[in-house]
Amino acid sequence: MNDQTFPNPFSTELPADRPVIIMSRTFNAPLDLVWKVWTEGQHVAQWFGPHEANKVVQYDVRTGGKWRIVSTMPDRSEITFFGTYLKVEPKAMIRNTFVVEGMFEEDERYYEEHHFEERDGRTYYRSISNFPDFDMRNATVDTGMEWGANVSMAKFDAILERLQAEG
User: Fold this and answer.
1) According to DSSP H, which parts of 48-89 are helical?
2) What phi and psi, each to the nearest 5 degrees, are found at residue 24?
3) Which residue has the higher pLDDT, 140 or 19?
4) Which residue spans within the chain are E strands per DSSP?
5) Distance between CA atoms of 79 and 136, rounded to whole angstroms?
6) What gap in Å lies between CA 37 and CA 46, rounded to an integer?
7) Of the candidates 20, 59, 30, 37, the residue with the CA atom closest to the CA atom of residue 153
8) pLDDT band at 9, cuts 50/70/90?
């Protein structure tokens, strides 16, 4: 399945001078709808990660709010992802920590930023994942995270299409 192609894949940058991953893409939907699918737990449960199923335990998208998602893997094992919303500017930017339970501790210095901008009825999205060093960034890339992100966004696009068709 890792050789799957995607109709709207991420553009990914790995800068040589900073331990970050920058990913960008366009959603063929207005910002209001993209924001809704990104920030409402019932939608997040459907698109988060390339997992079999997700249970959104907590999803409080506001500065200081917390999020927690338990993902079921194909072998029926579970992985818990969680974090804190460090800064939320509605319909513009979200900065949050991203933790995999049991792998590392939450640290506000290592965060993700998600930027959203509407142009001509489409939404341009850019994420920046910040890492403590190049080894951790490269190890993350080596896990297949880009493929997993593209699977998530293919599911996200399907939700957008369904909601747009429903009006």
Assistant:
1) none
2) -140, 155
3) 19
4) 11-13, 20-27, 53-59, 66-72, 78-89, 93-97, 99-100, 111-119, 122-130
5) 19
6) 10
7) 37
8) confident
